[in-house]
Each structure stands twice: as C-alpha cells, then as structure tokens.
Amino acid sequence: MEQTKRGRKTASTLLTATLVSTMLISACSSNNGNEKANESTGGDKASGKASSLKVEVFDRGNSPAGSTITKNYLTTFVQDKFGTPNNINVQFVPVPRSEEVQKLNVLMASGSDVPDIVFTYDTGTFYRYAQQGGLTDLGELLDQYGPNLKKFLGDETLAYGQFEGKQFALPAKRSHLGKYSSFIRQDWLDKLSLPVPTTTDELYTTLKAFKEKDPGQTGGKVIPLGMALAPAQYDPLIWSFIQPLTEEQRYTLTQQLGSNDYPTLLPGFKEALQFMNKLYNDGLMSADFSLDEDKKKLNEDAAKGLVGFFSEDDMNPFYADGLYSTLQKNIPGAKISAVDVYSNAEGKHPKPEYAPIGLFLMVPKSSGHAVEAIKYLDWMASEGNLFDMQNGVEGENYTLENGVPIMKTDATDEIKNRIYNFGDMAIISNGKQLGDADKNVEAYVVGMPEANQEETRKALSISRTDTIKPVLFDRPIEAQAKYGTALQDKYKEIIVKTAMAKPDQFESTYEAAIKDYMANGGQAILDERTKAYEAMKK
Asked: Shortest CA distance to 262 belongs to which of 495, 532, 7?
C-alpha cells in the first residue's frame, strides 16, 4: 500500500517548478483556444484508423524477467480488454518514481510529449497546474463518459480534485483510511496481573508499573513507552488531547504542512505536550527519542524486548519478518496486543485518518484525447476490471473466500509476476477495492502471516475508530506551501524542547517555541486560512 506521506521538496524540484511556471502557460495554450482538440471520442471505425491514448506509469525498476514497465501482463490486459474493443492504441509512458514531480514538470512544459493521463501524489503540484491553466476541466466529460467512474469515486473523493469549483483532477480512491494503532506487551500485563488499559490515565498507571516492576527482566533497561520523533509515535498521543472544535476553529487554526494536518494552534495541544513532559521527566519514555526520526532505535528496542507500549502505523508490527516476528525470536513467549488507549474527555480515542485519496489523475489541457482518458478510467471502474487488475486470475493467482481474494502462495513465479505492478496500473484506487471498507481491510488481514491475522484485524479496526478527518479547503493556501517544510522542523523542535524541559521550565519553553513557530510562517498560515474560511462562507 503506497502511503501518501510525501518527502520534502528538493532544491531541484523547486527550481524545476519555477522554470515550469513560465513554460507551462504557453504549452497549455497549444490548442489556441480550440476546445475541439479535447473532443476525440475514439478510433474511426469506418476507416479503421485507431485513436491513441498515452498513460503515465511509475517505473520503479522492479520488472521481473520477461517483462518491462511498458510491456507486461497488465499492459496487454488493458489493450486487449479496453484498447482493441474501442479502437484505441494504449501506450504507457514511464516516469521514474523517485523523480515523479521533476519529470512530470518537464513533460507538462513540453506540451507535445506529455501523456494524456498524468498523475501526482503532491497536492501542491496539482494546484499549481490548475492555477496555471494547464489542466482540462473534466466535469462535463465525467458526466458524459464516466458514470461508473463517478459512482466509484464518490463526491467525497472527487471534492479533493476540484479547484475554484471545477473538476481539474480525479483523485484515486483510498481503500483504507486508518492510520494509527497502539500496541502493548500483553505478556507483561499478564505477568503483573494487570488489565489492558483503556484510558490515558490507566496507561500512565500501567507504564509506572512497567518501570517499577520490570516484568521483562531487562536489568533496568526497560522503556515503558517507546517513542520516536515520527508522527506514528507522537500523533496518537497529541491528537487525543485536542478538544472538540467548532467548524471555524477546524478551518482556521489547523495548519497543513506537507500532506498532513498539524494541531499546533488547536486547543489541547499545550496539554498534550505537558503530558509528554511528565512522561519524559518520570523516566517513562524513550530517553533518546529526539535522535530517532527514522524509528530505527525504537524498532531495535522493541524487538529486543525492552519496550512495553508504543504507537505505530496501523498494522506495521505484524508483517512477515517484521518487528513482532523478530521480538518472538528474541524473547520466546513475548506477545504484543493492539490496543486503543489514548482517550479524551468524552471517553473517545481520537486519531487522524488519511484523506480518502491517492493519486491526483489529470488530463493536460494540451491533450487531444480527454474523452479516451475518461473512457479508459471509466472502463477500469466497470465490470470487475479493477478487481482483475489488482488480483489476477481466479484459481491461478487467488481463491475467493467470502468475497475476499486469498492469494495463492503456491503459485509459480510466472503467475505471481502477472500483477507485480498492479498498484501502479490500477490508478483509480489506492489499495484493493472489494466493495466495502470492511472487505478492503480484510484483504490486508489475509495478506499477513496467519498467526498475526487476529491482531492485525484488531489493529486495523482501531485505526478506523474515532478518527479525525483532514480539513479540505476549496483553494490552495499559499503560505502552507511556502513555509511548510521549515515549519515541520519547527513543529518537531516544539515537541523535543517541551518534552525534555525541566517541569518548572515547561511554560517558558513552550511560549518561546510557539513564538518562534509563529514568526517563521505559522502566523502567515493562520492569517491566510482565516481569510480563506471567510471567503468560503460568503
């Protein structure tokens, strides 16, 4: 499952984007105002002349022997099932995944070489193309040629592809919105005859017991709460302290940095940091968490049996040869259970969820094949075609149990390799789509080692419980793009400095850190979001 957590923009990305800003306008006008260029409806059946459709595809350099990224089982499937019946020659244009935005900028600026369907995970890139007039308005085409696609995506997903009221992108639909779960050493609880904690206060009591009684017999190395300087570890804690918000507070006080919403200015954020400060000063939290941005140290400590409780990306510990597997090899009898612990005043367990989207699918304004593009995506959303692209052939790649495909582990490599790139070909979806959210989740469960499936199912259920949806504006917030990368660093500084401060210095440390954050772009984002909210409500 490709996550939409985006890395920082490199200097070369920003430079390319700047150059493209001037080049794109002329490339977008290559139709000279003649919208007929976008009205091709497929090949000419009378003359037998085929139309064409160029589709971007990520190249990850992972094609198995006998296949290439542009010639493989799924590209042939697309041509045979969609292209040939519609007299359309479908061509795939490879773009290196690691250079996605840079390469797409160059293609968009070229005008003539750009594919008819392009995509990006980057919201800022989509908004920039829309602002510069580089994209086709797909609203009417979707109504006319994409009824199945429109139904599949739904209004909530489609809203993320709108700019100033026009449908300039078709966002892929994410199959699972859950983000985080938490995990506890069940064998430690059993040894101490402790119940599973269900609130933040109960968790604190449990953590103290872990520290004082060291049920894992670590020789004083016990880490009651494993922490890293990464969202999966601190987000569940922090967001559980955020108080109920009005609509205006959600829109104006939330700060979106990169692809995620940040609670820096929300009521309750300070209290969350104060709790982290207490955990740190009481010796209940990883002492060196501030140096562990990649979670490597946390994973090592947990796998060695030193950590009693931690939060993580929903089912991460349960992958084959993952953290849990390593822990059980190191500590026979060790057991991890998924738990929902961090609680708010209402007794709920709030945590962020993903936006309901994956890729932004776009048709450049210079394309003469917008109709073919919509027809292709509509075909993918029709008559089981998406299912076949994601799962292969029944009886060979998978068996079906209660509507959920169970992949055949005894299939030959040749058969398994048919769908090695299904995630990059089945572009209307992020994750497998089986008709409803529960079945989508079950598809992830059955892909885990059998011994871990029950806890995986529980973790995925927790990740979807009491979730907080992202805030969606109907326009880009320029200050977020301008200051986002620097403020992500400032946000981490706030967490580190306030957690590690002496208790009597917490207040002054917090005030100084917030003042610095606001002076370096936080205030600009607040001001712009406030104006955007006021304009949106008019």
From this structure: 495
Which among 181, 196, 182, 198 is positioned nearest to 347, based on CA atoms?
198
Among 56, 51, 62, 109, CA closest to 85: 51
216: its two tokens: 């894992």
Render 275-288 in DSSP notation, one character per residue.
HHHHHHHTT-B-TT
Phi, psi of 332 (to 5 degrees): -55, 135
CA 51 to chain centre: 35
The three-state secondary structure class of 413 is: helix
Residue 46's contacts (CB-CB under 8 Å, 6 or more residues apart) are none
Cβ atoms of residues 320 and 256 within 8 Å: no
What is d(CA 533, CA 521) in angstroms, rounded to the nearest whole number?
18
| Pairing assessment for the beta strands 260-262 and 351-352 based on DSSP bridges | unpaired
d(CA 153, CA 148): 9
- Are 336 and 309 in contact by the 8 Å Cβ rule? The answer is no
**Closest CA relative to residue 223, chosen from 271, 273, 321, 292:** 292
DSSP tag of 522: I
Q: Give the pLDDT confidence score for residue 110 in this predicted structure.
A: 84
Beta strands in 60-107 (DSSP E): 88-96
Asked whether the beta carbons of 391 and 432 are under 8 A apart, the reply is yes
- pTM of structure: 0.87
How is residue 136 written in tokens?
């086709």
Q: What is the pLDDT confidence band of residue 20, given thresholds at 50, 70 and 90?
A: very low
Residue with token string 């995620």: 260
- How many whole angstroms separate alpha carbon 277 and alpha carbon 263? 17
Q: Which residues pair with 257 in a beta bridge?
A: 260
pLDDT in tens, 372-421: 999 999 999 999 999 999 999 999 999 999 999 999 999 999 999 999 99
Q: Identify each DSSP E strand in 387-501 by its residue range.
A: 398-401, 404-407, 429-430, 467-468
Give the model's confidence band at 42: pLDDT under 50 very low, under 70 low, under 90 confident, else very high: low
- Please, are residues 241 and 274 in contact by the beta-carbon 8 Å criterion? no
Task: Find how far residue 5's CA is from the centre of its chain.
Answer: 5
Sign of CA dihedral 277, 278, 284, 287: positive
Beta strands per DSSP E along 439-532: 467-468
- Spatial distance between the Cα atoms of 351 and 335, rounded to a whole number of angstroms: 24
- pLDDT, residue 258, reads 86
Look-up of token digits 């962020």: 352
Say how far residue 424 (Cα) sits from the centre of its chain: 15
* Angle of the 147-158 helix axis to the 370-380 helix axis, nearest 10: 90
131-143 residue pLDDT tens:
999 999 999 999 9
Q: Which residues pair with 352 in a beta bridge?
A: 468
